[in-house]
Amino acid sequence: MEKRLFVIVLSFLFICVLTPYAFAYEETIYNWSYKPEKDQKPVTTETHYIELLEQTGGFFIGDTSQKELYLTFDNGYENGYTEVILDVLKEKQVPAAFFVTGHYLEDASDLVIRMAEEGHIVGNHSWYHPSLPKVGDGRLFNELNNVKERFTELTGVKEMHYLRPPRGEFSERSLKLSQKLGYTNVFWSMAYKDWEVDKQKGEDYAYDQIMKRIHPGAIMLIHSVSSDNAKALPRVIDDLREQGYVFKSLDDLMLQKQLEALPFP
Fold this sequence. Notes:
single chain, alpha/beta, two-stranded antiparallel ribbon, globular
Protein backbone atom coordinates (compact mmCIF):
# COMPACT_ATOMS: atom_id res chain seq x y z
CA MET A 1 0.00 0.00 0.00
CA GLU A 2 2.79 2.40 0.93
CA LYS A 3 4.63 1.56 -2.28
CA ARG A 4 1.53 2.16 -4.39
CA LEU A 5 0.96 5.51 -2.67
CA PHE A 6 4.58 6.46 -3.32
CA VAL A 7 4.21 5.67 -7.04
CA ILE A 8 1.01 7.72 -7.25
CA VAL A 9 2.67 10.69 -5.55
CA LEU A 10 5.74 10.36 -7.77
CA SER A 11 3.57 10.23 -10.87
CA PHE A 12 1.68 13.33 -9.71
CA LEU A 13 4.93 15.21 -9.15
CA PHE A 14 6.15 14.16 -12.58
CA ILE A 15 3.02 15.58 -14.18
CA CYS A 16 3.20 18.82 -12.15
CA VAL A 17 6.89 19.44 -12.77
CA LEU A 18 7.34 18.31 -16.37
CA THR A 19 3.98 18.83 -18.04
CA PRO A 20 4.38 22.63 -18.29
CA TYR A 21 7.53 22.04 -20.33
CA ALA A 22 5.80 19.41 -22.48
CA PHE A 23 3.41 21.99 -23.89
CA ALA A 24 6.35 23.48 -25.77
CA TYR A 25 7.30 20.13 -27.31
CA GLU A 26 6.36 19.12 -30.81
CA GLU A 27 3.71 16.36 -30.84
CA THR A 28 4.30 15.02 -34.35
CA ILE A 29 4.58 11.23 -34.25
CA TYR A 30 7.42 9.64 -36.19
CA ASN A 31 8.06 6.02 -37.11
CA TRP A 32 11.72 5.09 -36.92
CA SER A 33 13.27 4.28 -40.29
CA TYR A 34 16.64 4.34 -41.96
CA LYS A 35 17.99 4.15 -45.48
CA PRO A 36 19.56 0.73 -46.16
CA GLU A 37 22.95 0.48 -47.84
CA LYS A 38 24.88 -2.32 -49.50
CA ASP A 39 28.44 -3.63 -49.12
CA GLN A 40 28.62 -2.93 -45.38
CA LYS A 41 28.20 0.82 -45.77
CA PRO A 42 26.71 2.54 -42.67
CA VAL A 43 23.07 3.50 -42.97
CA THR A 44 21.63 6.98 -42.66
CA THR A 45 18.26 8.30 -41.54
CA GLU A 46 16.14 11.44 -41.83
CA THR A 47 17.95 14.67 -40.96
CA HIS A 48 15.18 15.65 -38.56
CA TYR A 49 15.49 12.34 -36.72
CA ILE A 50 19.21 12.90 -36.27
CA GLU A 51 18.57 16.41 -34.94
CA LEU A 52 16.02 15.13 -32.41
CA LEU A 53 18.37 12.39 -31.21
CA GLU A 54 21.24 14.85 -30.86
CA GLN A 55 19.01 17.17 -28.82
CA THR A 56 17.92 14.38 -26.48
CA GLY A 57 21.07 12.26 -26.23
CA GLY A 58 19.66 9.28 -28.12
CA PHE A 59 21.37 7.29 -30.84
CA PHE A 60 20.82 4.65 -33.52
CA ILE A 61 24.38 3.85 -34.63
CA GLY A 62 27.87 3.81 -33.19
CA ASP A 63 31.23 4.95 -34.57
CA THR A 64 31.06 4.14 -38.26
CA SER A 65 34.84 4.31 -38.59
CA GLN A 66 35.25 1.29 -36.33
CA LYS A 67 34.24 -2.33 -36.91
CA GLU A 68 32.22 -2.41 -33.71
CA LEU A 69 28.78 -3.96 -33.26
CA TYR A 70 26.11 -3.62 -30.59
CA LEU A 71 23.79 -6.57 -30.20
CA THR A 72 20.33 -5.72 -28.85
CA PHE A 73 17.22 -7.86 -28.42
CA ASP A 74 13.59 -6.82 -28.03
CA ASN A 75 11.85 -9.09 -25.53
CA GLY A 76 8.11 -8.43 -25.61
CA TYR A 77 7.26 -11.98 -24.59
CA GLU A 78 9.09 -15.27 -24.16
CA ASN A 79 8.85 -17.82 -26.94
CA GLY A 80 11.35 -20.38 -25.69
CA TYR A 81 14.53 -19.17 -27.37
CA THR A 82 16.07 -16.61 -25.00
CA GLU A 83 17.74 -19.30 -22.92
CA VAL A 84 19.43 -20.61 -26.06
CA ILE A 85 20.51 -17.07 -26.95
CA LEU A 86 21.92 -16.50 -23.46
CA ASP A 87 23.83 -19.77 -23.69
CA VAL A 88 25.39 -18.66 -26.99
CA LEU A 89 26.31 -15.24 -25.63
CA LYS A 90 27.91 -16.82 -22.58
CA GLU A 91 29.87 -19.31 -24.65
CA LYS A 92 31.04 -16.65 -27.12
CA GLN A 93 31.56 -14.00 -24.39
CA VAL A 94 29.42 -11.42 -26.20
CA PRO A 95 27.65 -8.60 -24.34
CA ALA A 96 24.09 -7.71 -25.28
CA ALA A 97 21.19 -5.49 -24.30
CA PHE A 98 17.72 -6.93 -23.74
CA PHE A 99 14.77 -4.52 -23.86
CA VAL A 100 11.96 -5.99 -21.77
CA THR A 101 8.26 -5.30 -21.24
CA GLY A 102 6.15 -5.76 -18.12
CA HIS A 103 4.75 -8.98 -19.55
CA TYR A 104 8.27 -10.32 -19.96
CA LEU A 105 9.28 -9.34 -16.43
CA GLU A 106 6.31 -11.22 -15.01
CA ASP A 107 6.38 -14.21 -17.35
CA ALA A 108 10.13 -14.82 -17.63
CA SER A 109 11.58 -13.36 -14.43
CA ASP A 110 14.19 -16.13 -14.18
CA LEU A 111 15.62 -15.14 -17.56
CA VAL A 112 15.71 -11.45 -16.61
CA ILE A 113 17.64 -12.35 -13.46
CA ARG A 114 20.04 -14.40 -15.56
CA MET A 115 20.55 -11.52 -17.98
CA ALA A 116 21.58 -9.24 -15.14
CA GLU A 117 23.73 -11.85 -13.42
CA GLU A 118 25.64 -12.56 -16.62
CA GLY A 119 26.45 -8.89 -17.15
CA HIS A 120 24.03 -8.00 -19.92
CA ILE A 121 22.16 -4.71 -20.03
CA VAL A 122 18.43 -4.90 -19.35
CA GLY A 123 16.66 -1.94 -20.90
CA ASN A 124 13.13 -0.54 -20.77
CA HIS A 125 10.62 -1.43 -23.47
CA SER A 126 7.63 -0.08 -21.45
CA TRP A 127 5.14 -2.08 -19.38
CA TYR A 128 2.28 -2.56 -21.88
CA HIS A 129 4.15 -1.72 -25.10
CA PRO A 130 2.06 1.32 -26.14
CA SER A 131 3.09 4.00 -28.58
CA LEU A 132 4.77 6.42 -26.16
CA PRO A 133 4.03 9.57 -28.19
CA LYS A 134 0.34 8.66 -28.14
CA VAL A 135 0.00 8.42 -24.35
CA GLY A 136 -0.16 11.25 -21.82
CA ASP A 137 2.71 12.34 -19.61
CA GLY A 138 1.45 10.45 -16.56
CA ARG A 139 0.95 7.23 -18.53
CA LEU A 140 4.41 7.57 -20.05
CA PHE A 141 5.91 7.92 -16.57
CA ASN A 142 4.03 4.87 -15.27
CA GLU A 143 4.93 2.74 -18.30
CA LEU A 144 8.62 3.31 -17.72
CA ASN A 145 8.66 3.49 -13.93
CA ASN A 146 6.75 0.22 -13.49
CA VAL A 147 9.30 -1.65 -15.59
CA LYS A 148 12.21 -0.17 -13.69
CA GLU A 149 10.66 -0.91 -10.30
CA ARG A 150 9.86 -4.52 -11.15
CA PHE A 151 13.34 -5.03 -12.59
CA THR A 152 14.89 -3.72 -9.38
CA GLU A 153 12.66 -5.99 -7.29
CA LEU A 154 13.81 -9.01 -9.29
CA THR A 155 17.52 -8.26 -9.57
CA GLY A 156 18.45 -5.68 -6.96
CA VAL A 157 19.89 -3.54 -9.77
CA LYS A 158 18.69 0.03 -9.32
CA GLU A 159 19.89 1.50 -12.59
CA MET A 160 18.05 1.31 -15.89
CA HIS A 161 19.50 3.73 -18.40
CA TYR A 162 18.30 2.67 -21.85
CA LEU A 163 14.91 2.81 -23.53
CA ARG A 164 13.78 1.19 -26.76
CA PRO A 165 10.60 3.00 -27.82
CA PRO A 166 7.83 0.46 -28.50
CA ARG A 167 6.96 0.06 -32.17
CA GLY A 168 9.78 2.46 -33.03
CA GLU A 169 7.37 5.37 -32.59
CA PHE A 170 8.52 8.63 -31.05
CA SER A 171 7.98 12.37 -30.89
CA GLU A 172 9.92 15.30 -29.56
CA ARG A 173 7.79 15.09 -26.41
CA SER A 174 8.35 11.37 -25.80
CA LEU A 175 12.09 11.72 -26.38
CA LYS A 176 12.49 14.71 -24.10
CA LEU A 177 10.26 13.46 -21.28
CA SER A 178 11.96 10.06 -21.22
CA GLN A 179 15.32 11.84 -21.25
CA LYS A 180 14.23 13.82 -18.18
CA LEU A 181 13.47 10.49 -16.52
CA GLY A 182 17.08 9.47 -17.09
CA TYR A 183 16.73 7.36 -20.23
CA THR A 184 18.78 7.23 -23.39
CA ASN A 185 16.58 6.32 -26.36
CA VAL A 186 18.22 3.56 -28.38
CA PHE A 187 17.04 2.97 -31.94
CA TRP A 188 18.81 0.73 -34.47
CA SER A 189 20.64 0.66 -37.78
CA MET A 190 20.19 -3.02 -38.59
CA ALA A 191 17.01 -5.10 -38.48
CA TYR A 192 14.89 -7.37 -40.62
CA LYS A 193 11.37 -8.80 -40.45
CA ASP A 194 12.09 -11.53 -37.93
CA TRP A 195 9.23 -11.23 -35.40
CA GLU A 196 6.54 -13.23 -37.19
CA VAL A 197 6.84 -16.52 -35.36
CA ASP A 198 4.55 -18.36 -37.80
CA LYS A 199 6.63 -17.28 -40.79
CA GLN A 200 10.12 -18.40 -39.84
CA LYS A 201 12.20 -19.32 -42.88
CA GLY A 202 15.14 -21.21 -41.46
CA GLU A 203 18.57 -20.63 -39.98
CA ASP A 204 20.24 -19.84 -43.32
CA TYR A 205 17.66 -17.19 -44.14
CA ALA A 206 18.22 -15.45 -40.79
CA TYR A 207 21.97 -15.66 -41.24
CA ASP A 208 21.82 -14.12 -44.73
CA GLN A 209 19.44 -11.33 -43.68
CA ILE A 210 21.65 -10.32 -40.78
CA MET A 211 24.98 -10.58 -42.57
CA LYS A 212 23.92 -8.52 -45.59
CA ARG A 213 22.85 -5.66 -43.32
CA ILE A 214 25.96 -5.48 -41.14
CA HIS A 215 28.08 -2.33 -41.17
CA PRO A 216 30.62 -0.63 -38.88
CA GLY A 217 28.95 0.81 -35.79
CA ALA A 218 25.74 -1.17 -36.31
CA ILE A 219 23.23 -1.29 -33.48
CA MET A 220 21.62 -4.64 -34.27
CA LEU A 221 17.95 -5.17 -33.46
CA ILE A 222 17.05 -8.85 -33.22
CA HIS A 223 13.83 -10.29 -31.83
CA SER A 224 14.30 -13.11 -29.36
CA VAL A 225 11.00 -14.77 -30.34
CA SER A 226 12.59 -15.95 -33.59
CA SER A 227 13.76 -19.57 -33.71
CA ASP A 228 15.76 -18.69 -36.83
CA ASN A 229 17.73 -16.04 -34.96
CA ALA A 230 18.56 -18.39 -32.10
CA LYS A 231 19.88 -21.01 -34.51
CA ALA A 232 21.83 -18.55 -36.66
CA LEU A 233 23.41 -16.54 -33.84
CA PRO A 234 26.52 -18.72 -33.22
CA ARG A 235 27.52 -18.62 -36.89
CA VAL A 236 26.74 -14.89 -37.13
CA ILE A 237 29.04 -14.13 -34.19
CA ASP A 238 31.86 -16.38 -35.41
CA ASP A 239 31.81 -15.14 -39.00
CA LEU A 240 31.59 -11.46 -38.05
CA ARG A 241 34.55 -11.86 -35.74
CA GLU A 242 36.36 -13.55 -38.61
CA GLN A 243 35.69 -10.37 -40.62
CA GLY A 244 37.32 -8.28 -37.88
CA TYR A 245 34.21 -7.06 -36.07
CA VAL A 246 34.14 -6.67 -32.29
CA PHE A 247 30.97 -6.95 -30.19
CA LYS A 248 30.68 -4.20 -27.59
CA SER A 249 28.23 -3.05 -24.95
CA LEU A 250 25.95 -0.02 -25.15
CA ASP A 251 27.77 1.17 -22.03
CA ASP A 252 30.97 1.26 -24.08
CA LEU A 253 29.25 3.41 -26.67
CA MET A 254 27.86 5.75 -24.02
CA LEU A 255 31.29 6.16 -22.44
CA GLN A 256 32.77 6.94 -25.83
CA LYS A 257 30.13 9.60 -26.49
CA GLN A 258 30.65 11.14 -23.03
CA LEU A 259 34.40 11.34 -23.59
CA GLU A 260 33.90 12.95 -26.99
CA ALA A 261 31.68 15.58 -25.37
CA LEU A 262 34.32 16.65 -22.86
CA PRO A 263 35.69 20.18 -23.47
CA PHE A 264 39.24 19.03 -24.12
CA PRO A 265 41.29 19.54 -27.27
